[in-house]
């Protein structure tokens, strides 16, 4: 049984770091992730650099990695609109991701538009990207809870998911943006959505803010989901819960999946090397439990 992992650390992880990692270090990280066997990597974002200064070097990073990437590796970037898409096109990107929220308040805070106002903006970008022969992915934030509204009705997510599918996105990633989801809720949401959208077109994007990230992956697996986003080392905190963990760690996810009998194509030892590299670049210990355990084991072996 195969599970696809979409590595979002270089984008979703690093955009939440206070330290701005140099472009050459980001390129080296992505190369290490590719060497570890990851074939889907979200490398950066073409959102206005004033919003996310940590990713202001998107062009340099993409131009540095795309020529060197292997044929079977899909390097993608986040774009907010047609302007962002044009920047991505000029870099040679062949896959882009669009994003919006399931909750009205978060969408306004994040995109400065209502959900209804956001649809035509993304539809225009999707149409242009598809015309250029690009793959298009969609993200839906705050599926399991909103920092401003609390619980989010599943019908909100259904409405946004359907709109993205109508735009032609190949896959919709459902996000637990603030890390409040529990397995019961994950079962319920995916059971509803798979009635209208096939499991092959849905992905899970879980955060470990409250320690339920991997349990939620297991719940989604039970509903037939086989695509999950994760971040090397657990990069990226939760902007709504200072000091809390953010994205689930790729190392932890791979360890669990392999232990459950799933195949990912990822070499955990090489993945550890990638985690150790970016941890050193940031100058702080990352939250991945498997990374910590593997590095401790290596250190012990060096002294015996």
UniProtKB/TrEMBL annotation:
<dbReference type="InterPro" id="IPR000891">
    <property type="entry name" value="PYR_CT"/>
</dbReference>
<dbReference type="InterPro" id="IPR043594">
    <property type="entry name" value="HMGL"/>
</dbReference>
<dbReference type="InterPro" id="IPR013785">
    <property type="entry name" value="Aldolase_TIM"/>
</dbReference>
<dbReference type="GO" id="GO:0046951">
    <property type="term" value="P:ketone body biosynthetic process"/>
</dbReference>
<keyword id="KW-0479">Metal-binding</keyword>
<feature type="domain" description="Pyruvate carboxyltransferase">
    <location>
        <begin position="3"/>
        <end position="272"/>
    </location>
</feature>
<keyword id="KW-0456">Lyase</keyword>
<protein>
    <submittedName>
        <fullName>Hydroxymethylglutaryl-CoA lyase</fullName>
    </submittedName>
</protein>
<dbReference type="GO" id="GO:0004419">
    <property type="term" value="F:hydroxymethylglutaryl-CoA lyase activity"/>
</dbReference>
<dbReference type="GO" id="GO:0006552">
    <property type="term" value="P:L-leucine catabolic process"/>
</dbReference>
<dbReference type="GO" id="GO:0046872">
    <property type="term" value="F:metal ion binding"/>
</dbReference>
<comment type="similarity">
    <text>Belongs to the HMG-CoA lyase family.</text>
</comment>
<dbReference type="Pfam" id="PF00682">
    <property type="entry name" value="HMGL-like"/>
</dbReference>
């Amino acid at each position: 049984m195969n599970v696809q992992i979409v590595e979002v650390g270089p984008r979703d992880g690093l955009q939440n770091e206070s330290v701005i990692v140099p472009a050459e270090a980001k390129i080296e990280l992505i190369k290490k992730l590719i060497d570890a066997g990851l074939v889907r990597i979200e490398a950066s974002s073409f959102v206005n650099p004033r919003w996310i200064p940590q990713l202001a070097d998107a062009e340099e990073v993409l131009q540095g990695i795309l020529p060197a990437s292997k044929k079977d590796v899909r390097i993608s970037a986040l774009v907010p609109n047609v302007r962002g898409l044009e920047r991505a096109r000029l870099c040679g990107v062949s896959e882009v991701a669009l994003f919006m929220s399931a909750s009205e308040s978060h969408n306004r805070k994040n995109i400065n538009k209502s959900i209804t106002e956001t649809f035509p903006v993304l539809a225009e970008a999707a149409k242009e990207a598809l015309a250029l022969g690009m793959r298009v992915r969609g993200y839906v934030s705050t599926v399991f809870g909103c920092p401003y509204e609390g619980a989010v009705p599943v019908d909100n997510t259904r409405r946004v998911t359907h709109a993205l599918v109508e735009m032609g996105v190949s896959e919709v990633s459902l996000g637990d943006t603030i890390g409040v989801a529990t397995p019961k809720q994950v079962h319920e949401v995916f059971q509803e959505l798979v009635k209208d959208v096939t499991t092959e077109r849905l992905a899970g994007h879980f955060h470990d803010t409250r320690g339920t990230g991997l349990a939620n992956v297991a719940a989604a697996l039970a509903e037939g989901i086989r695509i999950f986003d994760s971040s090397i080392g657990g990069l990226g905190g939760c902007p709504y819960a200072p000091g809390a963990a953010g994205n689930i760690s790729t190392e932890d996810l791979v360890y669990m999946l392999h232990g459950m009998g799933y195949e990912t194509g990822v070499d955990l030892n090489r993945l550890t090397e990638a985690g150790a590299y970016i941890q050193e670049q940031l100058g702080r210990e990352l939250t991945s439990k498997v990374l910590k355990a593997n590095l401790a084991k290596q250190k012990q072996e060096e002294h015996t």
